[in-house]
Every structure is written in C-alpha cells, then in structure tokens.
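task queued by scheduler; priority normal; single chain, no ligands, no partner chains; default sampling; output format set to structure tokens
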Amino acid sequence: MNASFSLRFKAFIIDYILILIYLVGLFIFSVFLSPFLQKFFTGSLIVAQVTGFLLVTLPVSLYFIISDSNVVEQSFGKRKVGIRVVGNKGEALTMPHATFRTILVTVK
C-alpha cells in the first residue's frame, strides 16, 4: 500500500530536521571551532563547490542511500511515521537501486 502524502511529508520533515541539526553543527564547527575550513569557501570557486559537495550534498545523499536501502530499510523519519521504501515486489531496495533513486531525486 502506498503511503499518503501527509505521512510522506511528516517523514520528510523529521528527516530534514535531522539534516538541519547536522548543518547547524557543521556551521558552528566551521565558523567558531575550526575557522580554517572557511578558506575553502573563499578561494577558488571550484574548491568551494567541491568542499560544499563533500560537506553537505554527499553526507545527506549517503544518509538517504544507506537508510532507504536493504542495509537499514528506513530513514529515521520514515521509521517514526511507519513507512518504508520498497521495490516493485515489496522487497527492500538494494544499495545500487537506492543510490540511483537518490541521484534522480538530487538532480531534479
């Protein structure tokens, strides 16, 4: 059975609260505790893009890839609202399938 929009939205909000906590922690770490990271964002545009990808996009993508795959089967938000991502036959997603799914969502 497909989850309703409201359940998916609740799971989305819970997951993104966790991601927001990570981003706030990263901001506090980079600005106050480890200012040497700032030089990666003020120099070359390419270095800034790669640094942003490695510190933000990659960890968030890995969170969804690992949690939606057959390794964990549910992200924290999905577990809290009682839904999970499954394949066409109701099986848990393989790691490559979860990776492809996350890349498609990220590229949109």
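post-processing summary
- The chain has one domain: 5-107.
- Helices lie at 5-33, 39-42, 45-68, 76-81, 95-107.
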